[in-house]
Amino acid sequence: MKPNDFPKDIQPYLAPTHEGRLVYRCLGCRAEFGIEKLAYVCPKCGQVLLIYDLNFARLKDIPAARWRQIFDYRKMLNVDALKGIYRYHEFIGPVIPTGAVIYLGEGHTPMIEANAALQDKVGVRFYFKNDGQNPSASFKDRGMASALSYINFMVQEGYLSDVLAICASTGDTSAAAALYAAYLPGVKSAVLLPHKKVTPQQLSQPLGSGATVFEIPGVFDDCMKVVEALSENYSVALLNSKNAWRILGQESYSYEIAQDLEYDVSRAVVVLPIGNAGNITAVMSGFIKFYETGIIEALPKIIGVQSEHADPVYRYYLEPDEDRRRFVPVTVRSSVAQAAMIGNPVSMPRVIHLVKRYNELAGEQRTFFVSVSEQNIMDWEILANRNGHIACTHGGESLAGLLEAKKRGIIDRQDIAILDSTAHALKFAGFQELYFEQQFPPDYKISPRRELINIPVYVHPADLDKVSAPGQPLKGKDFEHFVQRTADEISRMLDLKKRGKQP
C-alpha cells in the first residue's frame, strides 16, 4: 500500500519522525558518551556499554493503542527501510535516517506452532521462532543490520571512512558480519574463528562473502580476547555483541513476538539459548521498552538455557542471594550447541543489570536460567525436526530447556512458550550425521537413541545383475526388469499393499 491509501489519522506516523538523542551509558560508573565515535567499553572504567535514548520519555506521549496501530499499518508499507527490524525505528535507531538503513531481508521470522503430537509429548503449547530464516541463516543478522546501518550513517556523516569490520565468532557472527559488510562499498571485513571449532557450512559463509578469515588455536573466548586487543589498539569496527548497536538490533526479536501475539504477552514464555549473552540482553531490553510505553501490559517470563558444557550464567544464578553472587568464567567442553560454547560471555554485566531491572518492573521473578545435557539437546532437536520443524542444535537446546523449566515448575499448562531456534538446521547438519552414524566423540557424552537414528537404505536386489550407472543407462527389457525388481524390493521393505483392480 502507498501512504496515501492509509487512514488519514495514521498517515503522519507511518514514516518515523521521533528525534532520538542516543548516548552510550556505562553500566559501571554510569558515565555517558556521545555516539559520534565508535565505542565498545567505557573509556573511564572499562565496563561494557548500553545505548540509551535521552528522549525516550517522548515516546510515552503517543498512546499505546496508537503505537500498536503504527506497527500494524507499517506491515503493509512497501518501503525497504521499514520492512525489517526498523519497522520499530523509534525503539531501535531513532538517530539513523531511513536512507542509511541496511535491509537485506532480516527480521520478521515466522513463529511456527508445534503440532499436536509434539505438544502432547512436551506438555506445553509452544512455538519455534525460526531465526534461521534470516539472510545469513541466523539471528545475528538482526544485530548486524543495526550495527552496519549505524556504520553507514557514520560514513555518510563523515565521521568514518575506510572501515575494517572485525569480529570473533563461533560461526554465525562471522557469516552475518561478512554478509552485511560486503553490502556496503568501502567496508572490508575480517573474522577470527577457533580452529576446527566451526562447522564447514559456517566457515564457507564468510569466505563466500569475501571476508579475510583467520583461524587461531583455542576456543571462542581466546578469539574474543584477540579481537578486543585489536579494537583497543587499532582503528577497526568491532562487530561482536560487545558493540551496543548489536543489542539494539536484536531487540527486534521481542517486538516481533509482541506483535505476533497481538501485544498480549501475559502468558508468554520466551526460551532462548545463551552464548555471549547478547541475545538475552536484547530480549529483556526490548520487552522493557515496550512495557514502559504501555505497548504491552505485562512482562513475559524469560528462560535462558545453557548446556552443562558451557553454563557460567546458569551457575551464577544458582546462588539465590544477590549480594553473594560472584561470576566465575568456566572452561568450556565440546558442545553441539557450538555457537553457545562460551565460558566468559562479554555481555554478562548487561545480563546482571537487566535481570534485576526486569524483575523489579514485573514485581516478581520473571527471568529464570536452566542447564541441560548434551544428550537432551540432540534428542529434542531430532524429535522437533521429525515433527516438521527446522530447528538447529540451539533450537534443540531451547526445547530441552523448556522441558527442564516445566520439570522445575517455572511454567505451567496455561503458558505459551516461544522457543528461539537461532540458526538454520543445515548449519549444524554435521552433528545430526554424527548422531545417526553413532560417531560422536566421547567428550560430547551423547549416546544416540536407536529409535531416533535414521540412515539411508541401499537397495540392490541380490538377483539383479544389470543396474543403471552414470553414463551407462539400461534400456529395453533390462531397464524394465531393473525398475520392477527395485520397486518390488522397496514395497517389501515398506510392507506396501497391492492396489485392488480398478472397476
CATH class of the largest domain: Alpha Beta
Gyration radius (Cα, Å) is 25 Å
The count of β-strands is: 13
Which stretches are poorly predicted, pLDDT < 50 over at least 5 residues? Answer: none
| Number of contiguous helices | 17
List the domain count as a whole number: 3
What does this structure look like?
The chain is α/β, with parallel strands linked by helices and 503 residues long. It folds into three domains: 111-134 and 251-452, 3-Layer(aba) Sandwich (Rossmann fold); 139-248, Rossmann fold, CATH 3.40.50.1100; 459-498, no CATH class. Helix content is 36%, strand content 14%. It has 17 helices and 13 strands. The chain has helices spanning 11-14, 64-74, 89-92, 116-122, 140-156, 172-183, 200-208, 220-233, 244-250, 252-260, 278-292, 312-316, 348-362, 374-385, 393-407, 429-436, 476-494; strands at residues 22-26, 32-34, 49-53, 111-113, 125-130, 163-168, 187-194, 212-216, 237-238, 268-273, 301-307, 367-372, 416-421. Helix 6 links the parallel strand 6 (163-168) and strand 7. It starts with 10 loop residues before the first helix and ends in a 9-residue tail after the last helix. The mean pLDDT is 94.
